Amino acid sequence: MTVRLEVASPISSYTVNLANESPVGRVDFVDFPEEDDDRIFSTPWR
User: Fold this and answer.
1) Which of the residues in the chain have pLDDT under 70?
2) Domains of the chain, residue spans
3) Which of 14, 33, 38, 41 has the fewest CB atoms within 10 Å, counting from its CB?
4) How far apart are alpha carbons 46 and 35 in whole angstroms?
């Protein structure tokens, strides 16, 4: 299983894949430049 961070602006994603690269889940989030450690998650795991 792998968890990958896909960085984009303004919406980034975490994706989870099985060892055979089959997707298991994804969650999108927004990073705010003025906040160092806060993220707003915009979708549930699916």
Assistant:
1) 35-46
2) 2-41
3) 33
4) 26
